[in-house]
Amino acid sequence: MKKRALITGVTGQDGSYLSEFLLEKGYEVYGLVRRSSVEYHERINHIEKHNNFHLVYGDLSDSSSIFSLVSSVKPDEIYNLAAQSHVQVSFEVPEYTADIDATGVLRVLEAVRVCGLKDKCRIYQASTSELYGRVEEVPQNENTPFHPYSPYAVAKQYGYWIVKEYREAYNMYCCSGILFNHESERRGETFVTRKITLAAARISQGLQDKLYLGNLSSLRDWGYAKDYVECMWLMLQQKQPEDFVIATGEQHSVRDFCLIAFREVGIDLEFTGEGLEEKGIDKATGKVVIEVSEAFYRPTDVVNLWGDPTKAKALLGWNPVKTSFNDLVKIMVQSDLRKVAMEKAEAYVYGNLEQFIK
User: Fold this and answer.
1) Does the reported pTM lie above 0.85?
2) Helix, strand, or coil (residue 183)
3) Which residues are catalytic?
4) Member of which family (predicted)?
5) What domains does the chain contain, in order, with CATH numbers?
């Protein structure tokens, strides 16, 4: 019989790639979505008609819907990817973030336990490198102390520990993947990497004057989301459940990301100044195309995340740099160049090019 997988957050970046990955392996995939008057399924439109892919409705804030869904689907594996995943937004909606990112995890675990599936169903919890927050050592591994530095990270820490508690208290197969930053052409446009690649594409086409960013010196460990979903799956195929850091082991600054992205569209950048006064200048024209804005600084800012994937490489046989950092940025930029070209063509056809440029 086909294995059944339930994916929460299926319409997100990771959910869409994981769905594709599991369908290729012959799984029957159930993707959880919330009911809405406007449905946004752009990332999964191409697989919605697949015979083994099913959309099901529920909400991590509603335990009854989760219990009902788990009881009816009876999944062999659950991948809990749903979250309020934007760190900056978590400062604005901390209560909602806690309800979904913390208590939502508990609802999934309880549903599996109460429905009598604790010996059948394996659970993957999407944890985050933001747990390390105000980092106490670099690089960070599975034994590095946590110091969460945002409402998002605090909520995710509860999710991490409640998974560990259910694993030890009820002998359930549940584990957390501590994912460091993972990006792709499917990343939301409000995230910094996608802001950069989309702005580079638009600026190169004369459709945007300038890009405003926060701390350009922030350091991150960036990988390709399409590669990371394989590691999620591998974690649920082991004899014993364990938590793993999912990272590349390489570190780059926001500034580095900008340099590669703009170079891909033919703009060679030079940075001058420091802090809020730092600017990115197009060497060829002398035009300022990047400026720093205090509006994008967080109340408490994490500046140095760098993962150590040694355990995942050794025990899972996973390759964290299947896609290099340079290739990741180029993939994202090329995708946004196509997106901008299409939008520009549509705006021209409908006679609102000037409005589009604004």
Assistant:
1) yes
2) strand
3) 128, 130, 152
4) Belongs to the NAD(P)-dependent epimerase/dehydratase family. GDP-mannose 4,6-dehydratase subfamily.
5) 4-179 (3.40.50.720), 192-219+252-304+325-357 (3.90.25.10)
